[in-house]
């Protein structure tokens, strides 16, 4: 990397980093306990689901009223940013974005919504196999419980796909674009294109 072109900057706050790794851990274990459920693990599935809900609410609050860099309104989703991004998405050069690139922003939104729907539907469903039901199942009809169950099942598949794409994007950036996105999510520091001074500065 040419030091005249790239500078090391702190792009992810400690809050976002801790939040991210807690979320990843919770989602993976909740998914595992869901897919391989038994009498002993279903309660853990519930607890993890509630923890994920809490993490989501926290991120929504940050996104709406938190520090500027973490707001959804600061995500680079304008037509200009998307055009520049698409123009260089296939080139073998690091993007050097300060925070998310447009694709990362879309993935953030998609994952938040899918997780919210997953945890939300979970609250209303019952498990015929293990005689347990979500805390809100008592308040809705049988057909609603059934409907929520179908969607809990479907969105679980969608989440698998989204997380798979998430990881594939990291590999693509690492191998093709020669940019390490993973390390910044651990240390907070990232090589950023000099002079790039966009809305996402100083996450
Ligand atoms: C179920 C597991 C996971 C979920 C639900 C998840 C979700 C997310 C979300 C929502 C963000 C956006 C962060 C924000 O701005 O608030 C993000 C960013 C990120 N995640 Fe994950 N993640 C998961 C697993 C992983 C794993 C295993 C890795 C590493 C191999 C990883 C690497 C990253 C990186 C590097 C970013 C920053 C992307 C960028 O530069 O735009 N994630 N993830
Ligand atoms: C984002 C968080 C969650 C994820 C990733 C998740 C994932 C899963 C998965 C993969 C399954 C197996 C689906 C199937 O094979 O049909 C499952 C089943 C289930 N989940 Fe969740 N879940 C989450 C949150 C919750 C919450 C908050 C609750 C309730 C408090 C809940 C209640 C249940 C129940 C009762 C089942 C069993 C359904 C059945 O036996 O048909 N889940 N979940």
Instruction: Estimate the helix proportion, in percent.
Output: 55-70%
- Proportion of residues in β-strands: 5-15%
* Radius of gyration computed on alpha carbons: 19 Å
Number of helices: 6
Run of helices and strands? EHHHHEEHHE
Tally the beta strands. 4
Q: Biggest sheet: strands side by side, in what order?
A: 1-4
**Poorly predicted runs of 5 or more residues:** 199-203
Mean pLDDT: 92
Structural class: mainly alpha
Bound molecule types: protoporphyrin IX containing FE
Sheet with the most strands, sense and barrel status: 2 strands, antiparallel
State the shape: elongated
Give the termini distance in whole angstroms: 23 Å
Description:
The protein is elongated, with a radius of gyration of 19 Å. The strands form 2 sheets. Strands 1-4 form a two-stranded antiparallel ribbon. Strands 2-3 form a two-stranded antiparallel sheet. It starts with 5 loop residues before the first strand and ends in a 10-residue tail after the last strand. The longest helix is centred in the C-terminal third of the chain and has 34 residues, at 142-175. It has 203 residues and is mainly alpha-helical. It has 6 helices and 4 strands. Bound molecules: protoporphyrin IX containing FE (2 copies). The site of one protoporphyrin IX containing FE has 26 residues, from helix 1, helix 2, helix 4 and helix 5. One protoporphyrin IX containing FE (HEM) binds next to helix 1, helix 4, helix 5 and helix 6.
């Amino acid at each position: 990397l040419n030091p005249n072109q790239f500078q090391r900057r702190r792009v992810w706050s400690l809050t976002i980093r801790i939040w991210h790794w807690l979320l990843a851990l919770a989602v993976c274990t909740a998914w595992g306990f869901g897919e391989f459920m038994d009498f002993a693990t279903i309660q853990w599935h519930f607890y993890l689901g509630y923890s994920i809900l809490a993490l989501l609410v926290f991120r929504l609050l940050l996104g709406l009223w938190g520090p500027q860099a973490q707001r959804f309104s600061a995500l680079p989703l304008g037509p200009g940013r998307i055009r520049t991004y698409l123009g260089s998405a296939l080139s073998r050069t690091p993007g050097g974005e300060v925070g998310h690139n447009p694709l990362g922003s879309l993935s953030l939104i998609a994952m938040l919504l899918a997780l919210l729907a997953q945890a939300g539907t979970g609250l209303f469903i019952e498990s015929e196999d293990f005689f347990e039901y979500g805390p809100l199942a008592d308040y809705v009809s049988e057909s609603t419980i059934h409907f929520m169950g179908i969607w809990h099942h479907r969105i679980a598949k969608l989440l698998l796909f989204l997380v798979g794409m998430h990881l594939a994007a990291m590999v693509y950036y690492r191998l093709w674009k020669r940019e390490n996105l993973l390390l910044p999510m651990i240390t907070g520091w990232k090589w950023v294109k000099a002079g790039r001074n966009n809305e996402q500065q100083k996450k």
